[in-house]
Amino acid sequence: QVQLVESGGGLVQAGGSLRLSCAASGRAFSGYTVDWFRQTPGKEREFVARISSGGKNTFYTDSVKGRFTISRDNAKNTVDLQMNSLKAEDTAIYYCNIMGSNYWGQGTQVTVSS
After folding, report:
1. Among 8, 37, 75, 106, which residue carries the largest CB count within 10 Å?
2. In tens digits, what is the pLDDT along the chain, a chain of 114 residues?
3. CA-CA distance, 94 to 104, in Å (whole number)?
4. What is the DSSP string of 29-87?
């Protein structure tokens, strides 16, 4: 059993930055590829970014490329999402997920004011 807890969300003005963190407990994160997703009311959950188990490979949805950076610290069992140049359309609840699993956190709200 794995528990995921997201943190770091908040209210920020357009153009600002936030750093989200996903912390895992119950099992080591290090062997898993981890994704960040986001969801707004009435819409399906949307893939945002992915990082491989060793951290060497990353992948981003087109709308965040060049603005968001995913990273991980396997010693601390965390995966972070650095979000820069935020836009109003980035407003959503952000979730982390062990790729392909049913392990999800409770999410953290990001609100970008324009």
Report:
1. 37
2. 889 999 999 999 999 999 999 999 877 788 899 999 999 999 999 999 999 999 999 999 999 999 999 999 999 999 999 999 999 999 999 999 999 899 998 999 999 998
3. 10
4. STTS-EEEEEE-TTS--EEEEEE-TTS--EEE-GGGTTTEEEEEETTTTEEEEEE-S--
